[in-house]
Amino acid sequence: MKLLNVDTSDKVRKKIDESFTDSYDRWEQIPIGQSLGRIAFEDVLSPIELPQFSRSVVDGYAVLSRDTYGAGESMPVFLDVSGHVEMGKAAEGKVSAGEAIYVPTGAMIPEGADAVVMIEYVENLDESTVAVYTPVAPGQGIIQKGDDVELDSKVLSKGEKIKSRDIGVLSALGIEYIKVFKKLRLSVISTGDEIVDSFGEVQYGQIRDINTHLISAMAEESGAEISLKLLVPDDFSKLREAIGQALKMSDIVVLSGGSSVGAKDMTAKAIESIEGGQVFVHGVAVKPGKPTIIGRAGGKALFGLPGHPSSAMVIYKVFVDHLIRKYYYMSEDTVYIQASCGENIHSAPGKETYQPVELIERDGEYEAAPIYGKSAAITTVARSMGYIRISENKEGVKKGEKVRVALF
Ligand SMILES: Nc1nc2c(c(=O)[nH]1)N[C@H]1C(S)=C(S)[C@@H](COP(=O)(O)OP(=O)(O)OC[C@H]3O[C@@H](n4cnc5c(N)ncnc54)[C@H](O)[C@@H]3O)O[C@H]1N2
Ligand code: MOO
Prior knowledge:
By secondary structure, the protein is an alpha/beta fold. The chain is built from 7 helices and 28 strands. The strands form 8 sheets. The chain has a 6-stranded mixed β-sheet with strand order 7-4-6-5-9-8, with no helix packed on it. Strands 16-13-17-21-20-18 form a 6-stranded mixed β-sheet, with helices on both faces. A 5-stranded mixed barrel has the order 22-25-24-26-28. Helix 1 packs across helix 6 (309-327), helix 3 (211-222) runs parallel beside helix 6 and helix 4 (236-249) crosses helix 5 (267-273). Ligand LQZAQKY5 binds next to helix 3 and helix 6. May be involved in the biosynthesis of molybdopterin. Catalyzes the insertion of molybdate into adenylated molybdopterin with the concomitant release of AMP. Its EC number is 2.10.1.1. Residues 187-326 form the MoaB/Mog domain.
């Protein structure tokens, strides 16, 4: 009898970390306009301080704050207007005691001034005199030089996924190009005599391929690029050949199907038959995904995911995405949502259970509704927004219990 020797998921992640210790250090330099969603290869330090000069954040008069002390609605202070600052130009002139210079929003603060009074609190008495009806504190109405970004401060960390707002910051600093990780190359091989091209003829008894497309899309979401997609029948030599071909052109090979112990489940044996091929995980104490396989060949990673699409999706997220993040120096950035459990969920003690859920919003609170359906059901995949992890020591989750939903 052949039984799988199962590891806990924490132990499996540890094995992944220990097995793939070579750092992934391929990078390319790209214009920031093309960097959205890419992963920063190194820390980015600001080459300048920002703003580069103190600027007004309001339309008003640059003054010496102490000149305005005691000003009030019934007792204005009178100041001489000695000029105005033009946008995009260096401020000319200096504000001395008893003087004010007009500054539009965003313009440079002239020398001497330490605050700006908004025009709403100022009355123009004539060309060169204003009455100020409010006191202003030092710094009021001004964004000081270097307030936003200090010189040499870190604006992006190695391993950070570049977001639209980061592109905003980089533009403000005049950084045109950025070093990002070259995308990891990932191949997907789907196996099974019954699996056929999703878009071709389908005979009765055959199944349209889901996993190749599902896993490729998830890998792209993780920041990898797909170097090869193959569909192979349950034929040992064809599978072996496909693995060999995939290894040549990728850093990670993901296989779907054939992970279990049935007569046609030959993924593990095929990996072991490759030169230097070794399987170091076959079986994980998780539900779904018990027959998961993880191996390596010449430093490259191979994953054998269970064929059921929803199991493949969970195992991809829990192990393959984990390795991609490690290679990219990314911190765990799973987004969790607090929700209350919509119904009792039973789980198998001794196995960590990943229960796909749908999130339903009720009065600003989320309810996590478990999505059942055999792991072969594609709607389980399509409707699930995330999953609840139920530890191996628990027997389930009670209706109404607070849970953390990890978003897919
Ligand atoms: N005797 C045992 N049988 C099974 C066990 C076990 O421990 N002992 N584990 C079960 C579990 S759990 C799972 S999950 C499956 C895993 O099976 P395989 O990884 O060997 O996958 P297949 O048998 O090839 O396929 C399973 C299922 O998924 C469909 N499939 C496969 N590939 C695709 C694809 N690319 N697109 C769409 N659907 C796909 C396939 O047609 C099967 O229905 O084993 C259990 N059995
Ligand atoms: O991986 Mo399986 O049935 O646990 O889906």
